[in-house]
Amino acid sequence: MTATLGRPPVEPATGHAVRLSGVHKSFGQGRDAVTALAGVDLDVAPGEFVCLLGASGCGKTTLLNLIANLDRPSAGEIELTTSRPAVMFQEAALMPWLTAAANVELPLKLAGMGRAERKTRTGELLELVRLSGAGAKRPHELSGGMRQRVALARALASATHTEDGEERPSLLLMDEPFSALDAITRDVLQAELLRIWEATGTAVVFVTHDVREAVRLGQRVVLLSSRPGKVVQQWRVDGLAGQDEVNAVDVINRRLREVISSHAAA
Ligand SMILES: Nc1ncnc2c1ncn2[C@@H]1O[C@H](COP(=O)(O)OP(=O)(O)OP(=O)(O)O)[C@@H](O)[C@H]1O
After folding, report:
1. Which residue's CA is the nearest one to ligand 1's atom 8?
2. Residue 51 burial by Cβ neighbours in a 10 Å radius (0-12, 13-18, 19+)
3. Alpha carbon separation from 208 to 14, 26, 50, 261 (Å, rounded)
4. Which of the listed residues 27, 31, 174, 263 should we mutate to test ligand 1's pocket, taking the one with most ligand atoms within 8 A of CB?
5. Tens of pLDDT, residues 123-182
6. Is the pLDDT of residue 52 over 90?
7. What is the ipTM of this complex?
8. How far is CA 179 from CA 56, 86, 176, 183, 247, in A?
9. Rounded-to-integer distance, Cα 100 and Cα 63, Å
10. What pLDDT digit, counting tens, does each position of 6-35 carry?
11. Which ligand 1 atom is nearest residue 62's CA?
């Protein structure tokens, strides 16, 4: 079920960047088996920004790992029409011995891009994340927020470059990328991410615990049930502002609490 909060839904682009059909994932065997996901169906349109919301342990990270092809589903299908997705985690996980610029350049180098083109692209990406002046610094010389900006530029480098040079829509998978940052830095980076998303047209699947963050960033918020995870409800939240945004946060928060308490009571 997809509910609309506020203004009518913007028609999503045709086709899909990601299609999950009946995705199951279990870990372990027999009595120790844990079912993390039980039949997830989800489409993400090219260029769409989708936030995945759910209680702790409901399988959000598992789902991102499956989309990123870092793990295989136990059953079901995952179809991507994009270039290889880029993943960004809570911690920037930069190479500490490389400069910020070299970290951003690395995926381009690994993809076989020539030196001159690589340097130009790296410069553009650092400018996009407003770090043009910090390319020569190493990760330990940067603040947490700056490190996440470098990680974002690096993710965009790998998301927007295809090995065969063919133009394909890109996909960015983000697993609570701002949750370790202080509130002010998080707020700034959320705004930056929206600006960059609009500039690049990449599809984004963004995992968060935070309803406010999901409503601020997403065009669509998808709520997963507590473990095992599957989609229980979706809301179109595109372009909400002011009181409409506050109301949407209230509605989704209430539903999230219901989902968590029904699981606790089971
Ligand atoms: N490699 C693994 N082996 C065994 N169990 C796992 C593995 N990965 C995840 N799980 C289990 O699958 C369930 C879902 O985990 P997952 O990390 O996807 O949840 P999550 O929604 O991302 O949690 P959080 O919001 O706390 O980060 C959990 O019960 C977890 O313990």
Report:
1. 62
2. buried
3. 26, 22, 11, 19
4. 27
5. 998 988 889 899 999 999 999 889 989 998 898 888 765 555 555 678 999 999 988 888
6. yes
7. 0.95
8. 13, 19, 6, 9, 23
9. 29
10. 544 444 556 899 999 999 999 988 888 899
11. 18
User: Any idea where the domains of the chain sit in the sequence?
Assistant: 1-6+14-82+173-266, 95-168
Structure tokens at 231: 């989609």
125 vs 130, 150, 157, CA distance in Å?
9, 9, 7
Q: Does residue 34 line the site of ligand 1, with CB under 6 A?
A: yes
- Nearest C-alpha to atom 23 of ligand 1 is from which residue? 57
Q: Cα dist. 177→150, 206, 246, 265 in Å?
A: 12, 8, 23, 31
247 touches 215 (CB < 8 A): no
Its CATH architecture, for the domain 1-6+14-82+173-266, is 3-Layer(aba) Sandwich (3.40)
